[in-house]
Amino acid sequence: MTNQIDTNSLLRVEDLKTWFPAKNNSLLPTEKKFVKAVDGVSFELKQGETFGLVGESGCGKTTIGKTILRLEKATAGKVLFEGKDVFSLNRQELKGFRQKTQMVFQDPYSSLDPRMTVEKIIQENMIIHKAYSKEEREARTEKLLEDVGLAGFHARRFPPELSGGQRQRVCIARALSLNPKMVVCDEPVSALDVSIQSQVLNLLMDLKNSYGLSYLFIAHGMAVVKHISDRIGVMYLGKMMEISPKSELYAQPLHPYTQALLSSIPIPEPGLKRERIILKGDVPSPLNPPTGCRFHTRCKFARPECRECEPCLREIAKDHFVACHLYDDAPEVKKTEQEENKE
Ligand code: SF4
User: Which of 1, 46, 84, 188 is deepest in the core (most CB within 10 A)?
Assistant: First the structure.
């Protein structure tokens, strides 16, 4: 999928694999088995962009986020951040990388230390990285609280005294404390009440503009990523199935899995209903994924070749990539000479 590369790219993920060793229940003691959580995924995040990564639970999207930030060890592949190979950074370079990249976790209850005040939580990274003087840290904490919609008195509160939405605002303030360039948002609203979710999403969108951020936004629901993303990647069982600009994906989803995910979003018009595509069966185990196309066990369009041969991700409309044999005859988008030279 090399023709997706852009010189404006902040992050490039190339054929990334993250496998975890599995317990060996086989009679052959030498046979090693792996849970292939992420199994050859490529995409890029452009400067100032929000790239939504979506798929059912267990498809590997959170593992991708953690591997990019070196919180999990990659088995193979490359991650380039600002053109530098993240997996070969030395200690000093890694420190710089940690300042420029942050993560907002799904659960604002477990990701904050209940014994620390909000002020200490927000200042912790600044102290570790020796980034600001005491006065600057205090002024910065005040500004961050204001920017995430909290009041000055919240600085002296402890997490158990805050609501779920307020805790997630603290997590966001902490993530912004070192002025990062990229934030990995791992399902940041899924643990919140529905009434609070859109407030936090709107806040993230405002902060993206005011802080000049780029987001890798992970979610399991198509409705959430639609709200915030510029482009979207759809994952299934450790593989990328489709990548497209948001508007095109929702108007013309190509992959049968994307079509099924989109069919579950209600249309906000009284009397109008979308035809729901119900996927049969469970998601297969990443310990023993199906051969060929990983989706073939649940796909109503599956052909004999789908069981044998894995489809590759091809660009069949401008910036629209799909991995499905249904489009094998569709011509790939040709690169211009200028695009080729850029690479
Ligand atoms: Fe379905 Fe075959 Fe396309 Fe896979 S490659 S999504 S099984 S039609």
Answer: 188
> Ligand 1: which residue has its CA nearest to atom 3?
324
Are the C-beta atoms of residues 297 and 281 closer than 8 Å to each other? yes
CA distance 220 to 234: 10
215 and 134 Cβ atoms separated by less than 8 Å: no
User: What does the pLDDT look like over 64-120, one tens digit per residue?
Assistant: 999 999 999 999 999 999 999 999 999 999 999 999 999 999 888 888 999 999 999
Token match 């489709």: residue?
A: 242
User: Using one digit for the tens of pLDDT, what is the confidence trace for 154-210?
Assistant: 999 999 999 999 999 999 999 999 999 999 999 999 888 888 999 999 999 999 999
Residues contacting residue 183 through CB under 8 Å, at least 6 positions apart:
101, 102, 103, 104, 175, 176, 213, 214, 215, 216
The alpha carbon of 178 and the centre of ligand 1 are apart by a number of angstroms equal to 44
Give the pair of three-digit tokens for residue 166: 């307020």
Ligand 1 atom with the shortest distance to the CA of 255: 6
The C-alpha torsion from 211 through 216 and 221 to 226, rounded to 10°, is: 60
